[in-house]
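WARN  no MSA supplied for this record, continuing single-sequence
INFO  ligand: DQA
INFO  echoing inputs
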Amino acid sequence: MKKTVLVMHGPNLGRLGLRRPELYGAMTLPELNGLIKKRAAELGLAVRTFQANGEGELIDWLEKNHARARGLLINPAAYTHYSYALRDAVEACGLPAAEVHLTDISKREPFRRISVIKPVCLRQFKGKGELSYIEALEFLAGYIKRQPGETA
Ligand code: DQA
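INFO  complex generated
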């Protein structure tokens, strides 16, 4: 059976393509998920995707799904900057996690330069639009492969 990576998108990312396309790009969330799934299949991985606007919904979904997964790719969106609850949930799920942002949050408004999620992730990928997700997925695939006992 294929190893599964969870892909979580936080608040307002359901409106990708419509929301400030000059910043976040023209791709819609279903298109982005399609791109991630395609690359995942090439890497021998399955993905399970989820978007929610609420902190509790994101945390509940992670609680429910983490046990069957091998990695987590998360764009926490605005929760990046202040959600200790989501930070704790990412830490508690125990999955190797990669934080993703379409934009370069280090070069935007001061409140966006802080990530409370970063310390519980292996790496942060930012500033490359959809490619940030693909790079994060490739990183996670490599990480999962290097775990003891992995053959493929
Ligand atoms: C974002 C950056 C956040 O600051 C913002 O609130 C988002 C998207 C990004 O992908 O660049 O919703 O996470």
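The pocket of DQA is lined by residues 12, 75, 77-78, 80, 101-103, 105, 112 (CB under 6 Å).
INFO  checksum written, moving to next record
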